[in-house]
């Protein structure tokens, strides 16, 4: 829903990065270092990026990553999860 809202507001598709960590396509990104490398290659220079992470608790040390992303990129970050380990 957030992605659809952003697109309807005129945000370019390449500015939105959505990752569901339960999707096998992203199993190689379950370390915060690997995820950072992936994001660094995807972020468009000089544009705000919208990072949408679902089931973020699957990523080791995800809290450290989120704090670093706030500094590294001009970004809005959306984090969701259904596991009690997020608490």
Fold blueprint:
Blueprint lengths: L1 H7 L7 E5 L11 H11 L6 E6 L7 H11 L2 E6 L7
Parallel strand pairs: 1-2, 2-3
Helix pairs in contact: 2-3
Describe the structure.
With 87 residues, this protein is of the alpha/beta class. The protein contains 3 helices and 3 strands. It has helices at 2-8, 32-42, 62-72; strands at residues 16-20, 49-54, 75-80. Strands 1-2-3 form a 3-stranded parallel β-sheet, sandwiched between helices. Strand 2 (49-54), helix 3 (62-72) and strand 3 form a beta-alpha-beta unit. The radius of gyration is 13 Å and the shape is globular. The relative contact order is 0.20. The mean pLDDT is 91.
Key structural traits:
single chain, 87 residues, alpha/beta, three-stranded parallel beta sheet, 3 helices, 33% helix
Largest sheet: 3 strands, parallel
Distance between the termini: 23 Å
What is the total tally of β strands? 3
Instruction: Write down the overall mean pLDDT.
Output: 91
Helix content: 25-40%
Brief characterization of the structure:
The protein is α/β, with parallel strands linked by helices.
